[in-house]
Amino acid sequence: MEKAIIKERLMKFFKKHKNKSYTAFQCVSSIGLRKTEQADVQSVLNELMQEFVIEKIGKKYSLHSDVAESIEKDSPAEEIVKDKKTVIGSFDATSLARNMSFAYVIMDDGDDIMISSEDTLTAYHQDIVEVEIIKKRASKKLGIIKKIVERKTNKFVGVVDQIAKKDLFICDNLKIHTPFQVIRPDSNLAGQKVIIEIDNWGNRLMNQLPSGKIIEVLGQSGLPEVELMAVIRDFDLPLEFPEDVLKEAINVQDRITEEDISDRLDLRDLLTFTIDPISAKDYDDAISLEVLDNNRFKLYVHIADLAHYIRFNSPIFKEALNRGNSYYFPKKVIPMLPEVLSNKVCSLRPEEEKLTVSVITEFDSNAVIISQEIKESIICSDQRLSYEEVDLLFDNKEHEIDENIAHTLKIMRKLSRQLQAKRVQKGYLGFDLPEVEYIYDDEGYLVDLKRSRETESHQLIENFMLVANEYVAKTLTKQADTTIYRIHEEPDNDDLMKIKAILKFHKISFKIEDNNNKTWQNVLNSLPTIDYHRVFDRMVLRSMKKAKYSTARIAHFGLALSTYTHFTSPIRRLCDLVVHAQLKKYVFNKSVYETGKYTLSPPAIFEYAGIATKKEVVADDSERAMEQKTLLSFMKKKVGEIFTGIIITFTNSAMVIELDDMPVRGVVKYMNIESDFYELHDRLKVITGRRTGSVYKLADKVKVRLDMVSEDIYFNLIEETKKGKSKRNVKRGRRR
Length: 736
Description:
20 helices, Arc Repressor Mutant, subunit A, disordered C terminus, 32% helix, CATH 2.40.50.700, five-stranded mixed β-barrel, five-stranded mixed barrel, alpha+beta
């Protein structure tokens, strides 16, 4: 019997018995087939599992709760739309890239529409499409793409591959879910990183791939400089500044006049210093501390006064608006502002007088705020410190920090610890999320990778910057028509319940409290080891909504702050630059030269917030893409080597391993585990062996051999005697 018929029968059967589960053999007899057809039924069941239509618990199959409503074609709750209408949205091909049979159209109101793969027309990821809604349910909509309204792009970056004497283009972005045909080039470009321009979008129903011509050859795929250029081109990042921007930047007056400082608070004699990464070139924040009578302290957070130099109607601001933020790659920074400003004129370099905006906060001996104010100021930094130098001091190791600064840092350390304790008490969520640190030799070649962990010096700067950012947000809330807030909405209760179920399987419990912040703190505090933090800190973060910029005054959940903004990094973030302009206008009563659409009106501020959020996503995605390319290139040299690691998650087809000695993640395909056939229990994030009952769960230690590096890192599991819970116990746990 044809698989399509078997699939239809199975779906009708599971829909009718959606609250029950059945073995493959029971499915065969229940849909009226013979034992000899069980292999075909098993094949269809496997396909439906890949599509997340059904799930398997032990040996039994049941309708998957997450997508059941979206695929039940004859459900009484389903409504066939008679007066069909079309809507406009953004095509999301993430699920197609994962070999699923459906995609989504993302709607602004969050009411996304599911699209079967055969109904996607010629849409590609992030294209704007017109969708006809054909069916509705209470929580789901099913549609057909009728028209491509606007292409995200017709230019793509990827590699030319020669298959069966045909040149195919494979996009670097895996969400571009099909290859493209290459109009025959003049020379053999197999293995070359190229840019292709599509002029024919093909026909998906007739299996005709899109085709186009190569418009630029970037170089041999895999070379670091080629891969970096590929990312820059793929994300359309601006490499060069326009001529008018550079001309304006060069003409910026870097000499401070008496008129400039006539109404500023003169803090040039105040002991001041910066603390930044050792590789940093732009220093936009500096700190000072005064010890007062009665065990009080006065903390100064000085931020480069960008609004003094950048007018709202200037080419520099317009280009900052275009870039949105700076972009950071290994050994390469694409700055938001021209380097003459970011690295020289506005950078708070040591022993140079600089114009700043200072938030001054007076604390009592218990770190309770007595008073705060914000002033235009002038400073002269005494020393430039790195986080590593400050940590040497804090660890009582040999250092080269000036004696007076070292004494001040020790007092600052006490204040920082008090502030940290208060934030935790309010519900601050402290995640252990190390970043990748790249180690290069003297000739500039990457030789090692390490985890860059947050140390006490990082926490000190963060705590002090939070004080300044929170105060500025409260000040502009009172004095400006509107402002840009940095917000982080509360997570959904469903996400908490999912994590609770997984932790319960691991025999980890936590207390649920009325205060949601306290509850999520309890989740993090319940984790017993560093390995569990490696797994669950990211899982908790992914379960939460992403922080963003908004003109709506919504609390920042992760920081446990009711009113918060970004003010302390105007050299590298658009939000901070706009906030500085608002301070100039509303607090210091200075002109910012508003013209046309470049103003501080509420509609303009709303637009800037949207741009800042959008560009932050571009920065995150591009930096993540380059990081992955760097890791792949580095690991290719280590094929055949053996590593230890832990299991950090499970996908439908593989376990994901994070190595112990390096911040590298790769996969072990279930089909390549030789000892048994392993089945995924998705809700508990655990796999069990069908024959042996062996269990692999999150945070388990494993030994692996690096087998292959292509578009991902592939390991083979070096198996040892694996004892675990029986399948029966796992099954019972899933049903609770």
